[in-house]
Amino acid sequence: MNEPLTEKAIQQWLREEDPSRLDALWHWADQVRRENVGDAVHLRGLIEISNYCSRQCGYCGLRAANTDLERYRMSSEEILECAHEAARYRYGTVVMQAGEDYGIEAEWLAEIVFRIKMETPLAVTLSMGERPDNDLRRWREAGADRYLLRFETSDPELFAAIHPPHPARPAQNRLEILRTLRRLGYEVGSGVMIGIPGQSYESLAHDIATFRELGLDMVGVGPYISHPSTPLGEGAAIQPLEPGQQVPNTELMTYKVVALTRLVCPRANIPSTTALATLNLASGRELGLQRGANVIMPNMTPPKYRALYQIYPAKACIQETSQECRICLQGRIQSIGRTVGSGPGGRTKT
Ligand code: 5AD
Ligand code: FES
Q: Is 311 in the pocket of ligand 1 (CB under 6 A)?
């Protein structure tokens, strides 16, 4: 079992239905996780700093054309207050995420990053979309440590069908941006959604092999969840696949992808995501952690904004406060015999 997994083998695992074989996959991924990144679960406090977005992704509730959504952008004081709270909770990292919001000026965010780095011991992760290289450079200079940009699917046709280019900016290639981020010295994270309409087993297997090729430091994967105020949610015409080719957007498929991701990227930081928790509120987070994941991103967005960061409906944790999520997650981590990580929990050297 020490040969690197071929794309064909990955695809076979994605199609595997036999419960005892799947049990073997879960154990294998859990063992690889333990040997490579240990039992600590790193907590990354997530601050959703703005739900404005200039893009029109076919699946995402924050898309610019969704006028059903009230928009917000946090003030720098509000963001810094959340970051200090994360430090008090002894989280190692804050993740600032937003739609692709050019109302967030590079210099404004650079100042916030700089202050968080000066005033707290936190690692800073950004997830701001396909921003120009100069913005990425400026934030790195200000002290940002990591950047997340999912490539969503490695199938260029499917990618193009669900990601209209920005109307007023040069087209960018996400894999190219990931290389730029690496060159700038960021730890780099990416990932995909599972079960996007039009996503085949073959292309998902290729996505997973691509995680390995890119040598990612962080890989986030979660189920696609249909949002009614989006073209995909309204059943927009995506070329339907032959019977048996479409990947289902299920909880089980998500575990398979988490486990296979651990096998191809043994040392990566892999979150058990909120989208997975949304499919199984009772135990999705724990099962993700037991099938390859080693990171959780507790939501720290102020309660008045939480429900507005509606990427997809019925998102977990929109009624809770930061404090409630912290206590809930610490309990869940301990209940499965794992420990809460200390320190920034960055890339582990081979
Ligand atoms: N369902 C699941 N995940 C989604 N994302 C965006 N919209 C949806 C949806 N409808 C994910 C994308 C994006 C991340 C921030 O959220 O993968 O990169
Ligand atoms: Fe938010 Fe459990 S993580 S309530």
A: yes
pLDDT (tens digit, 9 = 90+) per residue, 120-159? 999 999 999 999 999 999 999 999 999 999 999 999 999 9
| Six token digits for residue 44 | 């990354």
Report the phi/psi class of residue 292: left, alpha or beta, with left for phi > 0 and alpha for psi in -120 to 50: left
| C-alpha triplet 281, 302, 341: angle, nearest 5° | 60
CATH superfamily of 7-337: Aldolase class I (3.20.20.70)
Ligand 2 surroundings by CB, under 6 angstroms:
298, 317, 320, 324-325, 328-329
Of all atoms in ligand 1, which is nearest to the CA of residue 148? 18
Q: What is the pLDDT of residues 244-302, one digit of tens each?
A: 999 999 999 999 999 999 999 999 999 999 999 999 999 999 999 999 999 999 999 99
- Ligand 2 mutation target, pool 325, 327, 330, 340, most atoms within 8 A of CB: 325
Ligand nearest to the CA of 163: 1
pTM above 0.85, yes or no: yes
Spatial distance between the Cα atoms of 304 and 275, rounded to a whole number of angstroms = 20
What are the angstrom distances between the C-alpha of 148 and each of 158, 306, 320, 325? 21, 20, 25, 22
Containing 46, the helix (H) or strand (E) segment is strand 40-50
SS3 state at 269: strand
Q: Which residues, 6+ apart, have CB-to-CB distance to 41 below 8 Å?
A: 289, 294, 295, 296, 333, 338, 339, 340, 341
* pLDDT tens readout for residues 9-41: 999 999 999 999 999 999 999 999 999 999 999
Q: How many CA atoms lie within 13 A of 21 on its CB side?
A: 8
Tell me, in angstroms, the distance from the centre of ligand 1 to residue 67's CA. Answer: 18
Q: Which ligand is nearest to the CA of 281?
A: 2
* Start-to-end C-alpha separation, the chain: 20
* Residue ranges per structural domain of the chain: 7-337
- CB of residue 162 inside a 6 A radius of ligand 1: no
Q: Residue 215 C-alpha to ligand 2 middle, in angstroms?
A: 31
